[in-house]
Amino acid sequence: MEIKKVMVIGAGQMGSGIAQVHAMAGLDVVLHDLKSEFVERGMSTMTKNLLRQVEKGRISEADKESILSRISTSTDLTNASDVDVVIEAAVENMDIKTALFAELDQIAPAHAILATNTSSLPITEIAAATKRPEQVIGMHFMNPVPVMKLVEIIRGLATSEKVYQAIKDLSLKLEKTPVEVNDFPGFVSNRILMPMINEAIYTVFEGVASPEAVDEVMKLGMNHPMGPLTLADFIGLDTCLYIMETLHEGFGDDKYRPCPLLRKYVKAGWLGKKSGRGFYTYEA
Ligand SMILES: CC(=O)CC(=O)SCCNC(=O)CCNC(=O)[C@H](O)C(C)(C)COP(=O)(O)OP(=O)(O)OC[C@H]1O[C@@H](n2cnc3c(N)ncnc32)[C@H](O)[C@@H]1OP(=O)(O)O
Ligand SMILES: NC(=O)C1=CN([C@@H]2O[C@H](COP(=O)(O)OP(=O)(O)OC[C@H]3O[C@@H](n4cnc5c(N)ncnc54)[C@H](OP(=O)(O)O)[C@@H]3O)[C@@H](O)[C@H]2O)C=CC1
């Protein structure tokens, strides 16, 4: 199947990165969000990223312009009517995702693949909101998308071989490394990563050490590029909480219970880097 045009839903940190790598691979991209100010924010993130590439001499100014010219913006979901693939990267919430997939199923062409960048939610359940579950698949990018090589590919119960191959080929075209995993809560990446982050939050909650000390231990002691609390702020504390809740509910095992401190920060609106405050504070 030839994929020429892709719609990315959600122009947040993941959606803007996903749109950027597709445009860099020569595909036409529609970047969609609820409000034009969110889409503009996504466009400005991409423009800054590409400008950095120009300054480093990796691409020319003309390349940057042609990449950006391949991206159009949308606040109207009917713009999915002529795309080959939709990649959903809206908030990590099952109700929002199933509502979006049910609507997309009505709008997108019959041949279109509906992919989700969910970081933990069951693909099979998202697929069941459509009448084309064989064309629904998990395409899980890592943050920051332009830098990280992995794409975790997750088949739902009904996903067809043809659709799996098309998404695997698309990932290779983006110069990513696809890894296939089964449809279980958190897949592989977040089943392993998120309990570590949650445990790091517990060490702060229980007064074992300060956030700075926890991060320093993991950076210098384990050679992690970022400490777990810096990483949690970078991912978004809301997303971290939603993932822990999915693991907790999905496995019914208390070892996945979210730390109360994580819940408290999210309730306070301390969502990490994107809101200016989490375990650390950030300049706007
Ligand atoms: C929650 C989920 O469902 C799944 C997830 O995504 S979990 C999160 C997975 N991601 C991680 O674990 C990231 C861990 N951190 C890292 O790997 C590194 O700290 C990092 C790549 C983010 C930054 O690397 P660094 O060496 O500390 O900083 P820096 O030298 O500024 O950046 C390295 C490169 O990344 C680029 N970069 C950094 N942040 C970027 C961003 N937000 N967007 C685009 N590019 C970025 C820089 O431009 C630089 O590019 P070049 O090498 O081409 O010059
Ligand atoms: N952060 C990470 O490191 C990773 C996240 N993911 C997954 O990617 C998805 C997005 O995460 P992330 O980019 O971090 O989140 P962000 O909060 O940065 O962005 C989400 C965007 O989606 C928008 N949105 C919400 N609801 C809808 C809707 N119904 N239609 C269209 N747009 C909508 C949001 O708008 P508003 O601000 O109004 O809510 C926001 O602009 C989640 O499923 C997450 O689990 C996957 C890998 C890594």
Automatic annotation (TrEMBL):
Keyword Oxidoreductase on entry: yes
Occurrences of domain 3-hydroxyacyl-CoA dehydrogenase C-terminal (ranges): 186-282
Site (Important for catalytic activity): 140
Keyword terms, alphabetized: NAD, Oxidoreductase
Gene Ontology biological process terms in this record: butyrate metabolic process
InterPro entries the record matches: 3-OHacyl-CoA_DH, 3-OHacyl-CoA_DH_CS, 3-OHacyl-CoA_DH_NAD-bd, 3HC_DH_C, 6-PGluconate_DH-like_C_sf, 6PGD_dom2, NAD(P)-bd_dom_sf
Keyword Transit peptide applies: no
Positions that bind NAD(+): 10-15, 33, 92, 97, 119, 143, 274
Domain spans labelled 3-hydroxyacyl-CoA dehydrogenase NAD binding: 5-183
Any GO molecular function: NAD+ binding
Pathway(s) the chain acts in: Lipid metabolism; butanoate metabolism
Family to which the UniProt record says this protein belongs: Belongs to the 3-hydroxyacyl-CoA dehydrogenase family.
Alphabetical list of NCBIfam families matching this protein: PRK05808.1 (NF004474), PRK07530.1 (NF005715), PRK07819.1 (NF005875)
Name of the featured protein: 3-hydroxybutyryl-CoA dehydrogenase
Organism: Halalkalibacter nanhaiisediminis
